[in-house]
Amino acid sequence: MTERAKIGFQDVRDVVLERIQNRVWSQGDLLPTEQELAEEFGCARATVNRALRELADRGIIDRKRKSGTRVAVSPVKQAKLEIVLTRQLVEDRNANYRYALVERKEETAPGWLASQLDLPMGAKVLHLRAMHYADNQPFQYEDRWINIAAVPKVVDADFTTVGPNEWLLGEVPFSNAELTFAAVPADDELSDYLACAKATPLFQMERTTWFRSQPVTFVRMSFHPGYQMRSQY
Amino acid sequence: MTERAKIGFQDVRDVVLERIQNRVWSQGDLLPTEQELAEEFGCARATVNRALRELADRGIIDRKRKSGTRVAVSPVKQAKLEIVLTRQLVEDRNANYRYALVERKEETAPGWLASQLDLPMGAKVLHLRAMHYADNQPFQYEDRWINIAAVPKVVDADFTTVGPNEWLLGEVPFSNAELTFAAVPADDELSDYLACAKATPLFQMERTTWFRSQPVTFVRMSFHPGYQMRSQY
DNA sequence: AATATCATTATGTCTATACATAAGAGGATA
DNA sequence: TATCCTCTTATGTATAGACATAATGATATT
User: Fold this and answer.
1) What ipTM does this complex have?
2) Which CATH number fits the domain A86-223, given the four candidates 3.40.640.10, 3.40.50.720, 3.40.1410.10, 3.30.930.10?
3) Spatial distance between the Cα atoms of A56 and A34, rounded to a whole number of angstroms
4) A189 φ, ψ to 5°?
5) Is the shortest CB-to-strand distance from B4 to strand D under 7 Å?
6) In this predicted model, what pLDDT tens digit does every residue of B84-114 receive, in sequence order?
7) Chain A to chain B, count of Cβ pairs less than 8 Å apart?
């Protein structure tokens, strides 16, 4: 028997996506209404609604009340970039992870940092410098500032065994962040810690983190020469 | 009157998120069932379901049939990285965009490319090299290979006025891709085109694109010295 | 003790119905 | 022509009820 199973929202979603990919509906085209699609597929409008909502979330289609649903003109491609702990990055390569604290110092936020984190004048910060190793090879140099006002308990953490990232993940697990990526030449300090020649190109990632609009931390991570970051969409 | 508006799924979502952030429910904790939450909020179970589904999509909670809903132990942080056209990157900086084709050549895929794109031996590719300028300053050098079998029409496109990225977006608007980022030293060619000293650190992004499991294109984009890429989550 | 069976339970999904809301279309008015 | 109004329409959301499904835990069997 060709007794076919009932149509679910995933079926609708996939068929609609396929039609868009096959140019049955081209960029900018108006799709049938939910009602019409529901009739075509023999399902409830709510089912079509969920299917189309998912496609809209993915940026495949644009929806507007009264106007209807259109195939997105310029599909907003956005890559998902998994933010993982350095420990995990290292262990994913089947390498042995080692962490070492270089320096721990309480200080007043320098001007550039106060500006970066939007801190008041004279705000207290904890400045940490640390190294991450993969099989005892330098993997990443970490330069971090933590807003003490946002995480008062940080003054009691010594960070000799647990890295600041892991510690913060436990204290402030849900936060927003802004990232920047760049290529920079190794300066004296970086070339020293990362065991490379001066001016070697290094991949650098900076991250500013907030929790409920309050600045928490700014970190600059410099990776060993040749490091590649991966992502997909 | 304290006549409060009816509870919607967004309210439920936000209240649950707030409780998680406030550690009312900590990492790994079991949340009340949908039924219980629906009773608490005075709404239908479907409403709670949608609220929790959104939080699950964001990686805030984990849900499993019969077991229930738990606060995610290691919230998967993932940054959203908008993939934009080079033209847009330039114009977003209020700079004048200019594109120039450097070379266009049909060839058989070299071994490393066949391997990268998973192409059969002797597959035909179109090799393009191009420059993107911002206010007539070198902005990005683009080195691209397109799988002719996947996009036969590409042999008729001359790419003198429209860049390959924009052209492909029109032809293959929906695709998957894998990205890698790295810092590399400028070689002779890059230092020439990007007007910088040899060995200058350059931010480089590589992208491999598929459409329905068929490899479409591989591109290596090298940015001018000092370029920063931004993202957030 | 190990394995198969079955009831239970929380989530996953679908449906029909209802009402809310944004926004386009047309007409009336100034 | 420009502005305001109402009507209409497609999407957005809520609901009660139903059944599906995965996973757990208990029970019975080997």
Assistant:
1) 0.89
2) 3.40.1410.10
3) 13
4) -65, -45
5) no
6) 889 999 999 999 999 999 999 999 999 999 9
7) 140
